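Protein modeling request. Please complete all fields; requests missing the sequence field cannot be processed.
Requester role: graduate student
Desired output: 3D structure, token encoding
Chains: 1
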Amino acid sequence: YLDVSLALGLQPALKSDNVVMITNGGGSGLLSCDHFERCGMPMRELKDISPILVDRIRAYMPMFGSPLNPVDISGTASPKQYKGAITQAICDPNVDCVYGSICPTAVTDVDAVTDIYIDIYKTYKHLGKPLIMECQGGEECNRSIMKLRDNGIPAYPTAEQAVNAIVALRKYAKIKERFTK
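Delivered output (181 residues):
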């Protein structure tokens, strides 16, 4: 239950199912999609959330990347590509949660992507949108997870834990909605 309590303690409730996942790993995206489905909160396609966002994010991925949802900016993604894609997603008024994922490759700068995510969180925290991060890997990912948590961002080592946290934030919002009407 750490995944749920950590998110509820650090992030605002999730207003809708409009979650955009930015990842450099297709496998992580598939695991996340499958788990969202099992939890009864299937991921929506990016074009259904915000048609404009598809083109805006495409500018930050190679031609072979996937602008669906999850958005796969590819295993060659640079910190600049992560920053651009995540910033576009968090600033889009139709997106209510950004779910970032780092899957280390030979060229992935985990520390730089972590710092970018923290900077984006601090810059756009006033928007009231949850930011969740998943970082799959060894020691560098464990350090990244701890650094993200120390800066108020729920971060997890598995897709399932990250998805559980996002689903809990949505359920929490629905409970709040019932009692405020």
